[in-house]
Amino acid sequence: MLEIENIHAEVDGRPILRGINLSIEAGRIHAIMGPNGSGKSTLTYVLTGRESCKVTQGSISFCGRDLLSMEPDERAIAGLFLAMQYPVELPGVSGLTFLREAVNARRKVAGEELVDSMEFLKMVRSKANSLGVSDEMLKRSVNVGFSGGEKKRNEILQMAMLEPRFCILDETDSGLDIDALKVVSDGVNSLRSSDRSMLVITHYQRLLDYIEPDLVHVLAHGRIQKTGGKELALQLEQRGYINFIETAA
């Protein structure tokens, strides 16, 4: 589904990624762990098409298409979804309106019938309840005045409604207490399927207790330094990243 080959990228003229190679098949969940400054956020910028990030070498194929030639909105329409570490606020735009416009935009491109307000309300309520997203939250402006846990639950609801083919979870556990983490993780796990893949980016092993990955990659100094199973995440929790940082340096 996603093929990253020898990606080099820089931000504001400073090299960050120095040769990323990564292949994620349909139905698989991969996790990337690494210290601050390792290039985790830059990788999400590359995948989603952020303007401040410049790819200087390499290629990325998404579902057989050249991802780097696509605009950010084209990537979203094609099925790429980013759950951000710090979800943005959209004052004046209700959650219901935002979700319905996003869902109908995807349906329009796919040549499917658009969903009216009443039908959409039934659709969204069926998914919102399991994530602890109330009608009152849906009526409020997107993420305005939300707690950290509410913002993350709202993003997983967006993911559930849009049904993307590839999901990037950028430090979704950031700022969550144990109860909120479990709710969000249950929502993510409910979306696991044979035709949907995920890339989970995190500092800590605790998220991977709830969202179990097929493979774990250690990113340091702009390169993937090691790949293994879930036991690799446990090793990192116990020993930290110092060995990988020293080896990369």
TrEMBL record:
CDD domains per the UniProt record, alphabetical: ABC_FeS_Assembly (cd03217)
Any one GO molecular function term: ATP hydrolysis activity
Ranges where the ABC transporter domain occurs: 2-246
SMART domains: AAA
Pfam families linked: ABC_tran
InterPro entries per the UniProt record, alphabetical: AAA+_ATPase (IPR003593), ABC_transporter-like_ATP-bd (IPR003439), ABC_transporter-like_CS (IPR017871), FeS-cluster_ATPase_SufC (IPR010230), P-loop_NTPase (IPR027417)
Keyword line: ATP-binding, Nucleotide-binding
Keyword set includes ATP-binding: yes
Xref: PROSITE patterns: ABC_TRANSPORTER_1, ABC_TRANSPORTER_2
Entry keyword Coiled coil: no
Highest rank taxon of the organism: Bacteria
PANTHER family: ABC TRANSPORTER I FAMILY MEMBER 6, CHLOROPLASTIC
Family membership: Belongs to the ABC transporter superfamily. Ycf16 family.
Name of the protein described by the UniProt record: FeS assembly ATPase SufC
Gene: sufC
